[in-house]
Design a protein that fits this description.
Layout lengths: L3 H8 L11 H11 L4 H11 L6 E6 L5 E9 L10 E5 L2 E2 L2 H9 L9 H12 L3 E2 L3 E2 H13 L11 H7 L4
Parallel strand pairs: 1-5, 1-6
Antiparallel strand pairs: 1-2, 2-3, 3-4
């Protein structure tokens, strides 16, 4: 869980037009602000170092207006859901760990799984792959498919071991 200050700091990473001094600055500031979340930070960095890249899609409505952006984030290679990807929006993720964190959160904390953190870090570091805009129908299909995956945020129960494999701290 992130404090309001931590969430605000990471929110600035989602601005594609932000100019950072480089990877060292992003990582130094991240380690400072996330000093109590180093495991999630480490796991997010491992996702960015993986074989598959994080892909960003803009969902369009009429006249090129961007309704929302969403990201497909590959699962980590040590996960039991290795060949799957999770779908992240600015404020949520389809992974089971995010949903568990969100249920346990109080109003002053922001749930943050490694997938959401990887999206923010990847955007700030310039390593996100941007794809062509997609229709709302494609977005709906993608979100439904992501939630139906075994590791998705569905309603079935999850053991503590599965959360450990997913890499997100409970």
């Amino acid at each position: 869980m992130l404090s309001e200050a931590q969430a605000t700091f990471l929110g600035g990473f989602l601005d594609r037009n932000s100019v950072w001094e480089g990877a060292d600055e992003v990582l130094r500031l991240s380690r400072f602000y996330l000093h109590d979340q180093l495991k999630v930070l480490e796991d997010a960095l491992h996702l960015l170092d993986g074989k598959e890249t994080i892909k960003c899609f803009d969902s369009c409505v009429e006249n090129g207006f961007i309704a929302r952006s969403y990201w497909k984030v590959p699962s980590s290679k040590n996960s039991i859901h290795y060949n799957e990807s999770y779908m992240c929006m600015e404020t949520g993720c389809t992974c089971r760990s995010y949903h568990e964190l969100a249920r346990a959160a109080d109003a002053s904390l922001t749930p943050m799984c490694k997938h959401l953190l990887a999206v923010r870090l990847g955007t700030a570091l310039g390593v996100i792959e941007y794809s062509a805009s997609q229709s709302e129908e494609v977005f709906s299909k993608d979100i439904t498919q992501a939630q139906m995956q075994p590791g998705g945020g569905g309603a079935s129960s999850t053991s503590k071991r599965e959360h450990e494999d997913d890499g997100t701290v409970l």
